[in-house]
Write a structure and sequence with these properties.
Elements lengths: L2 H15 L3 H6 L13 E4 H6 L31 H9 L5 E2 L5 E2 L3 E3 L4 E3 L5 E5 L3 H6 L7 H8 L8 E5 H7 L15 H15 L5 H11 L5 E4 L4
Antiparallel strand pairs: 1-8, 2-3, 4-5, 6-7
C-alpha cells in the first residue's frame, strides 16, 4: 500500500530536477555557429562594378587612427608586421638576427620592376592607403578594426613590399591620381586595389571607379578576395 506514495515522491523529485518551462524560455538562445568567410573570384570588370559608389570624406583623419606596425601574425617570432611581410615576400631569404633584424635578402618591387636589397631600402605599402581607407568607410570603424586593417596579412594583396621611391610617389592617392610606373603592373595593381576594397567593404568614388574600369577593359585578370573577419 506504500507504492502510490513512493511513486508520488519519485515524480516530485524528477520534476524538481528539470527546469520549468518558464525557466527554459528565459534562457538566451545558443549562439549560431561561426561561418567561415569564403574566397570570392570575379573578373576584374565585374569586381570593380561591385564596389559601393560613394563620395570620399577625409574629415577627422589622422594617421595615428590606424595603429601599425604591431606584433604581427606570429607574436612569438619577435617580428613586427613590417618584418613579417618582408620575410614572406623575399625572393632570396634574408638572415634573421636578434630582434628580427634582417640582413641580406632580395626583393622584387613590381610597381617599378626593380630588384631591391637590403630590406631597409623597401617600404611596406598599404595597397589602399590609410587615408584612402578612412575616406572610403574606415572612419566609421572601431580602433581595433582599423588596427586589423593596417596590419592585414590575411590577404597577400593588402600589404606589399616596394621601393621607397614608388611608395612615396604614390602617397595616399587612388588609381585616378596615381598608377605604378611599370606598364606591366597595371592589371595586377588594379586587381589588388579592388580586392582590398572588396575585402574590407570600402567604397570607391566616381573618378576612381571609372579609371579602374578603363584599366579592366584591357585586362583578363581575375580578382580574388576573402571578406575580412
Amino acid at each position: 500500500m506504500k507504492r502510490p506514495a513512493a511513486a508520488a515522491a519519485a515524480g516530485l523529485a524528477l520534476a524538481l530536477s528539470l527546469p520549468s518551462a518558464a525557466t527554459a524560455a528565459d534562457q538566451p538562445p545558443a549562439p549560431a555557429p561561426a561561418v567561415a568567410a569564403v574566397r570570392q573570384f570575379l573578373p576584374l570588370g565585374a569586381a570593380v562594378s561591385a564596389l559601393p559608389l560613394a563620395a570620399e570624406d577625409r574629415t577627422g583623419y589622422v594617421r595615428t587612427a590606424f595603429r601599425h606596425w604591431n606584433s604581427g601574425d606570429i607574436p612569438a617570432d619577435g617580428c613586427t608586421t613590417r618584418a613579417e611581410v618582408l620575410l614572406v615576400e623575399a625572393v632570396v631569404y634574408p638572415e634573421v638576427g636578434p630582434g628580427c633584424a634582417l640582413a641580406g635578402g632580395l626583393w622584387w618591387s613590381y610597381y617599378d620592376e626593380r630588384e631591391v636589397t637590403p630590406a631597409g631600402s623597401l617600404d611596406i605599402d598599404h595597397m589602399v592607403p590609410l587615408a584612402e581607407a578612412w575616406d572610403s568607410g574606415a572612419s566609421a570603424w572601431t580602433a581595433a578594426r582599423r588596427e586589423a586593417y593596417a596590419n592585414d596579412q590575411g590577404q597577400p594583396a593588402s600589404l606589399v613590399a616596394v621601393t621607397a621611391s614608388s611608395n612615396r610617389s604614390k602617397a595616399d592617392q587612388d588609381p585616378a591620381e596615381w598608377l605604378p610606373p611599370a606598364p606591366g603592373a597595371l592589371c595586377r595593381y588594379a586587381a589588388e586595389w579592388t580586392a582590398t576594397k572588396l575585402r574590407w567593404g570600402l567604397a570607391a568614388d566616381g573618378a576612381e571607379r571609372e579609371r579602374l574600369l578603363d584599366i579592366a577593359a584591357g585586362c583578363s585578370t581575375d580578382v580574388e578576395f576573402t571578406p575580412a573577419p
